[in-house]
Write a structure and sequence with these properties.
Helix content is 40%, strand content 15%. The protein is of the alpha/beta class. The protein has two domains: 132 residues, Aspartate Aminotransferase, domain 1; 236 residues, Aspartate Aminotransferase, domain 2 (3-Layer(aba) Sandwich), CATH 3.40.640.10. It has a seven-stranded mixed beta sheet with strand order 2-8-7-6-5-3-4, sandwiched between helices. The chain has a five-stranded mixed beta sheet with strand order 1-11-12-10-9. Helix 4 packs parallel to helix 10, helix 5 packs across helix 9 and helix 11 runs parallel beside helix 13. It is globular and about 55 Å long. 50% of the residues are buried. The structure holds pyridoxal-5'-phosphate. The site of pyridoxal-5'-phosphate (PLP) has 13 residues, from helix 5.
Length: 389
């Protein structure tokens, strides 16, 4: 029986450059001592106090269908948090609770694009972006952010392909580059969005992981609140990746329609997860800084390791849990480098090419293992790069 074109063409590039990740996992399963610096998963679990609250809420009976838009107290908490951070008036009617940020990205494209419409996104990009856009029936169109520009997107480049585009998806702090978009970058994007009349979907799931500069939400730029959907998540900020809880914040009318979409797709998020999320958010910024601290420490370690050598060049890491290394001095592609590194040193990093053409000649290192092991592995990566020159 035939399957839909939509599902069978979701990822036309097959694994989308994740072969290396699967290979590393297979080697590990076969008992080889592979050091994995691949995916964005914390090396700590969800805090026990959050799990206790999850258990308490479930035992207290929050195991039935929960309010589809999200429980009111959680929507209020998210609204207050977003308003405090951005200065933009936000109420529960601007908030939809979703099963993770990923689901929010999909819902946003469902809400803002019609089948066959162009949906722009910045390259390098989080691996699911093109497939998410295709799943919603739109056409993914990458806009390169160049390494020479520090991977900051250029308003002129966006404008050049904006004709007929319904949306632009941006991500700051950025996965995979670790770059935080500057105010001028966001103002430039906002100017094009308003002149060309498209929506912006702003993926801000790393907003608690800032090492340099400041996180600015594009929704806070004058004129943008009416044309922006912000996607947030507790995966990275609270080490709750497996709980699948996030949100979309945007204009009431868009949220109203996305609630209707939730009714006909996810049917909401488990009540006990939402109660635990509410508890977690109420722990405040200190708790979130504690979850982010290991990445900040490892960033410092990385900067020291990378001092005084020329084999690799770090893209200045300003946020998120990744380090993007420019390995073009080796003359290798990111894929070639990552494959040989895995083969010879048993270290797995992600080829830049798996995040789009703009990241060619780079590799992404996830700073997700214990500090000493991380330092040793990174020294090994640098030594390996030096040996290729
Ligand atoms: N957006 C970016 C940039 C990510 O890196 C991730 C996960 O790695 C997500 C969205 C999805 O996160 P969630 O676990 O909230 O679905």
């Amino acid at each position: 029986m035939a399957l839909s074109k939509r599902i069978t063409t979701l990822t036309p590039d097959g694994s989308g450059g994740w072969d290396l990740f699967f290979k590393a996992r297979a080697m590990k399963a076969a008992g080889e001592p592979v050091v994995e610096l691949t995916i964005g998963e914390h090396d700590i679990g969800t805090d026990l106090s959050i799990l206790d609250e999850m258990h308490r809420a479930a035992a207290a009976g929050h195991t039935g269908y929960a309010d589809i838009p999200g429980i009111p107290a959680l929507r209020d908490e998210i609204a207050a948090r977003v308003e405090a951070a951005s200065g933009v008036k936000t109420t529960r009617d601007n908030v939809l609770v979703t099963p993770g940020g990923q689901s929010g990205l999909f819902a946003a494209h469902m809400a803002l694009t019609d089948p066959g419409q162009r949906a722009l996104f910045i390259d390098p990009y989080y691996a699911t972006y093109p497939g998410t856009i295709r799943a919603a029936g739109a056409i993914p169109c990458p806009v390169a952010a160049r390494p020479e520009a520090g991977f900051q997107p250029d308003a002129g480049d966006i404008d050049a392909v904006a004709e007929g585009a319904a949306t632009l998806m941006i991500n700051t702090p950025n996965n995979p580059t670790g770059v935080v978009y500057a105010r001028e970058t966001l103002e430039g994007i906002a100017g094009v969005a308003q002149a060309r009349d498209f929506w912006v979907i702003s993926d801000e799931v790393y907003d608690t992981q800032i090492w340099a500069g400041q996180h600015l939400s594009i929704r806070a730029i004058p004129g943008m609140a009416a044309r922006t959907l912000v996607v947030g998540s507790m995966s990275k900020s609270h080490a709750m990746t497996g709980s699948r809880i996030g949100w979309v914040v945007g204009p009431e009318e868009a949220i109203r329609h996305m609630i209707n979409l939730s009714t006909h797709t996810t049917y909401g998020v488990a009540g006990y997860i939402q109660e635990a999320a509410l508890f977690a958010l109420r722990q405040g910024a200190g708790f979130e800084a504690g979850v982010a601290a290991p990445f900040q420490r490892r960033r410092e370690i990385a900067l020291k390791v990378l001092e005084g050598q020329n084999a690799v060049r770090a893209v200045r890491p300003e946020g998120a849990m990744y380090l993007m290394l420019d390995i073009r001095a080796t003359g290798m592609s990111g894929t070639g480098f990552a494959e040989k590194l895995l083969e010879e040193r048993r270290i797995a990093v992600m080829p830049g090419e798996s995040f789009g053409a703009a990241a060619a000649g780079h590799v992404r290192v996830a700073m997700t293992i214990e500090d000493t092991r991380f330092e040793t592995a990174l020294r090994d990566v640098v030594d390996f790069a030096g040996a290729q020159i």
